[in-house]
Task: structure prediction
Amino acid sequence: MDVKVNYAAVAVAAVVMFFIGFLWYSVLFQAQWMAYTGVAMDQQMSGAEMGMTFGGSLVAYLIVFYVQTHVHHAFQVNDVKGAVQAAFWNWLGFILTAMFVTNAYQMKSFGLTLVDSSYWLVSMIAGGIILQKMKKQ
Result:
């Protein structure tokens, strides 16, 4: 499969997802997420933990959008509508289902699944649109 990966687009999509996460968990849904997870405002990560968490997240997002580029290629996504549909179906089939099962077995609130999975949905749609708009011809 000859996939033309625009690495700049992958990087932009990953950084956008990182910043959506900052807004999602620091501004929009901070109180709900903290209540669902039991994390308190006074809890802080060490520098090493923060570096590992943020750095690891960014690497994971790069992988998500690298793979999403391959999905776009395989399904011949050629417009924004197709990018949104691909993001939605990937989210529904892989993200939402995995989060639901994991949270259910860990006896976490369904609210946590809603907060976390909706972050992924919004981010994957935004990233998919970026990939499409910056697509190599």
